[in-house]
Write a structure and sequence with these properties.
mainly beta, 4 domains, four-stranded antiparallel β-sheet, 4 helices, elongated
Length: about 350
C-alpha cells in the first residue's frame, strides 16, 4: 500500500500495517489498516467480504492525528472509487493507492521489475509460462523469444514526477470541448501550480497547511434534496442491451415540510418548484454501489416566453380583425373611374 503526503510517499506491506499504527514521518498522522477484504462487495451500503464473489481486494485504513480521524476505503481494482462517488476530500490531504499483485490473463507479456536494491530486471511470459528473472539495463536491446522481436527500456527515472499540461487545440465537430485551468497559489514565500479540468479537485500543502481547490460549474442551493432508494434497469429479452432505466427516489424539502416518493425515468423527469430532474445515465460496477446520474434543469424565462407568445397571438388576431376596416377599393375607383 502506498500513501502520499505532501509529495512524500510511504510504501507499507499490508501484513505489517496490521501490527500497529505506523507514524508518518514529517506529519502528525499515523496510519493503521483496520480490515483487509479479498472479495469485497457492497450490500445495502455496507462493505462485506464474500469468498464466493469475484476477486476484489480492498482495505479499510484509518488516518489519525491531532483533531483529525479519517477512515478510508481503497480498492486495488478501482483506484478512482472515492472520486466517482463524490466523497469529500481528505482533510489530512491523504492520497492512497492499493497495489495488489494479480496474475495477468495475458498469455504473453513482458514484465519490468524493480528490486529492493533499486535495480531493474525483467521476465518474459510466453504461452502462460513465466521465464527467469533477468537483470535489465536501460538503453540495451533484449530478445523476447517471440520471432525476432526485441525490446528496450529507453530510460529509467527512480524519482519521477508526473506533470499534467494542456494546450489549446481545435475540437472535432460534435465533441464537447475540454476546459482546463492552471492556477498558481502563493503563501509565505512558497508557490504551487496545478492544472484542473472541469470537475477535478486536488489537495496540496503550502507551508504545512492543506488547501483544497476545485474547478467546476457554479453550484446553487436548491433547498431540497433527493435520496436514491433503488435503481432499476430493464434489458431487451435475451440480451444484455439496456432497454430502459429508472430511479426510485425520495424528495425532501424541509422548509416546506414536503416528503414524497417519485420515479424518475428517461422520458419522465421529476418536476418540482420549477426544476426538472432528468435521468441521464448510470454507472454499474462490480463490488461497488450502483450510481444513478441525474441532470437538473431550470428555465427562469418561461413566464417571459409565455407572455411573448400571448402577445404574438393577440397581435395576429388584431391584424386580421382590423383588416376589414382598411381601404381595399381599387385605385381607379378612388379617382372616379368606372
Amino acid at each position: 500500500m502506498t500513501r502520499k503526503f505532501n509529495d512524500q510517499e510511504l510504501s507499507l506491506p499490508v501484513s505489517e500495517a496490521f501490527e500497529k499504527p505506523w507514524p508518518i514521518a514529517g506529519t502528525p498522522y499515523t496510519l493503521e489498516v483496520k480490515r483487509f477484504l479479498s472479495h469485497a462487495v457492497v450490500e445495502k451500503n455496507k462493505l462485506l467480504d464474500h469468498p464466493d464473489a469475484p476477486l476484489n481486494p480492498a482495505c479499510e485504513v484509518a488516518v489519525k492525528g491531532g483533531e483529525i480521524e479519517e477512515l478510508h476505503t481503497v480498492f486495488a481494482r478501482f483506484p478512482d472509487f472515492p472520486t466517482i462517488h463524490g466523497m469529500k476530500p481528505s482533510q489530512s490531504g491523504v492520497k492512497m493507492r492499493f497495489d495488489y499483485p494479480e496474475e495477468s490473463e495475458a498469455s504473453s507479456e513482458i514484465r519490468i521489475l524493480r528490486g529492493e536494491d533499486g535495480k531493474l530486471s525483467y521476465q518474459i511470459k510466453t504461452e502462460g509460462a513465466v521465464g527467469e528473472r533477468t537483470p535489465l539495463e536501460p538503453g540495451k536491446d533484449y530478445y523476447t523469444g517471440w520471432m525476432t522481436l526485441k525490446f528496450r527500456v529507453t530510460d529509467y527515472l527512480e524519482e519521477a514526477e508526473h506533470e499534467v499540461g494542456f494546450d489549446p487545440r481545435p475540437m472535432p465537430q460534435g465533441k464537447e470541448p475540454l476546459a482546463a485551468a492552471r492556477i498558481k497559489f502563493e503563501r509565505g514565500g512558497e508557490s504551487h501550480s496545478v492544472w484542473l479540468t472541469r470537475g477535478d479537485n486536488q489537495v496540496f500543502f503550502l507551508n504545512g497547511r492543506p488547501f483544497h481547490v476545485t474547478y467546476g460549474l457554479k453550484t446553487l442551493p436548491v433547498e431540497f434534496e433527493l435520496e436514491l432508494k433503488d435503481f432499476i434497469i430493464d434489458y431487451y429479452p435475451g440480451s444484455n442491451r439496456p432497454a430502459s432505466f429508472k430511479s426510485e427516489v425520495t424528495l425532501r424539502d424541509p422548509l416546506r415540510g414536503v416528503t414524497q416518493n417519485a420515479m424518475i425515468s428517461m422520458n419522465e423527469p421529476l418536476d418540482y418548484r420549477g426544476f426538472k430532474i432528468y435521468q441521464s445515465g448510470y454507472d454499474l460496477g462490480q463490488g461497488r454501489p450502483d450510481v444513478s446520474i441525474f441532470s437538473v434543469g431550470r428555465d427562469p424565462g418561461i413566464p417571459v416566453k409565455y407572455a411573448g407568445s400571448i402577445v404574438m397571438i393577440l397581435g395576429t388576431i388584431v391584424m386580421f380583425y382590423m383588416k376589414r376596416f382598411t381601404n381595399t377599393r381599387p385605385f381607379y375607383e378612388t379617382n372616379g373611374k368606372n
